[in-house]
Specification:
Blueprint lengths: L16 H17 L4 E4 L4 E2 L4 E4 L9 H13 L3 E7 L4 E10 L4 H10 L4 E4 L4 E4 L3 H8 L1 E6 L2 E2 L3 E3 L6 E2 L1 H13 L2 E6 L5 H6 L7 E2 L7 H6 L1 E2 L4 E3 L1 E6 L9 H4 L5 E4 L4 H9 L4 E4 L6 H6 L5 E5 L3 H7 L3 E2 L10 E3 L2 E2 L4 H17 L1 H8 L7
Parallel strand pairs: 8-12, 8-13, 17-18, 17-19
Antiparallel strand pairs: 1-2, 1-4, 3-5, 3-6, 4-5, 6-7, 9-10, 10-11, 14-22, 15-21, 16-19, 16-20
Helix pairs in contact: 1-2, 3-4
């Protein structure tokens, strides 16, 4: 455990040489006991466990005890933090004067790191080095996060046809990620039939996709998916007058039942795999299917427990009789190309933080969604 000391720094930041020597001794000892790395406030000798540490270019390649005094002097003249770690390959210690950013200012931390020629920055809160040659730095440099979304899936992702405005639970998640990066967000239209093709396209159409995308092993074979931020499961939407007619999947799977699904997604896949007798109708626009069910163009819509409550609450002609007993159980996450490890780490850290601080549950409540975490 580090010993607490105080540093006398006058308003013009003059630092006595004896004081610098004493502090450097403390940091050097800390380096021996924390070879895997540390960030310390040299004004108090308190180890830092939260925030984002970024090194200054001025103190790069400082290894020796003598060079450490220069690092401490620089830190006391600037932000007051020193980072260090031991490189077992070279047998050298590395010490740097650092700037510490709160987690909410990741974008600013990335920009400062790039300005100072750093290869990476260190996120203490999640114990991760963020590679500044990776995807996150690219997004920050262009000041925009491009997010693919279908815009046809109330209340997760919907694009108003007149205004072109996007809204929904997934849209707010995308905006939270962009805010954490300190950049703007731009939504790019995709579709369920072309989702995989669009995610894998080169050049990329967008950095990640969001909005009702179920985490599956098949998707993870060719792409990356984040941790789940919303629980889901297959259920049905039908006319309220027919609610008593459908009490199980067997009740749906009858020759006289017309089942409507959108093309290319997991709803169509589920219907084809599980309904051997019902008549399956593929309709190109997912957002139109509930109204078609309400007016009798089909009997049942295969949907998710994330989508069905919205339509039941907004149209008295509709019902979701099996909402509390879904046919499947899964989670919805963020989809992106492989090779964007830094971005997936960041997205997962945001999801974990939102679960921990209650903001994810509050967002569920806003949209009337079931919280399963």
């Amino acid at each position: 455990m580090a010993v607490l000391i105080t540093c006398s720094v006058t308003e013009d930041h003059a630092v006595g040489s004896d004081n610098v020597t004493a502090i450097a001794d403390q940091v050097w000892s800390l380096g021996q006991t924390c070879p895997d790395g540390f960030t310390v406030d040299v004004r108090t000798m308190q180890l830092q466990t939260e925030g984002i540490a970024v090194s200054y270019a001025a103190t790069q390649n400082s290894h020796t005890r003598e060079q450490l005094e220069d690092v401490v002097t620089h830190a006391l003249h600037h932000d007051g933090y020193v980072g260090g770690w031991y490189d077992s390959l070279s047998g050298r210690y590395y010490f740097d004067s650092s700037r510490l950013y709160p987690d909410s200012l990741l974008g600013e931390a990335v920009r400062f790191g790039l300005e100072n020629g750093q290869q990476d920055i260190y996120i203490l809160t999640i114990n991760v080095n963020l590679d500044l040659s990776g995807k996150v730095a690219q997004v920050v440099s262009r000041d925009t996060l491009y997010v693919g979304t279908t815009g046809d899936y109330r209340p997760l992702s919907f694009c108003e046809p007149v205004t072109g405005e996007y809204w929904g639970f997934g849209i707010e998640m995308a905006r939270e990620i962009a805010a954490r990066l300190g950049v703007k967000v731009k939504f790019v239209k995709t579709s369920w039939p072309t989702l995989t093709e669009d995610v894998l396209s080169e050049p990329q159409l967008f950095d990640m996709a969001i909005g009702g995308i179920t985490i599956t092993d098949a998707r993870k074979e060719t792409m990356m998916m984040s941790d789940g931020y919303l629980g889901n499961g297959k259920t049905i939407l039908c006319r309220a007058a027919d609610a008593g007619r459908f009490r199980s999947l067997d009740d749906v799977d009858k020759p006289e039942v017309r089942v409507m699904v959108n093309p290319g997604g997991l709803n169509e896949k589920f219907a084809n795999q599980n309904l051997k007798h019902a008549r399956i109708i593929v309709h190109p626009r997912n957002e139109e299917i509930p109204s078609l069910i309400a007016r009798g163009d089909a009997d049942v819509m295969i949907t998710e427990i994330t989508e069905a409550p919205y339509y039941v609450n907004t149209d008295t002609l509709l019902a979701a009789p099996l909402l509390n007993t879904p046919f499947t159980h899964g989670e919805i996450g963020v989809l992106m190309q492989k090779g964007q490890d830094d971005l997936i780490l960041l997205v997962n850290s945001i999801i974990r933080k939102m679960k921990a601080d209650g903001s994810l549950r509050r967002l569920h409540d806003k949209y009337g969604l079931v919280y399963v975490f």
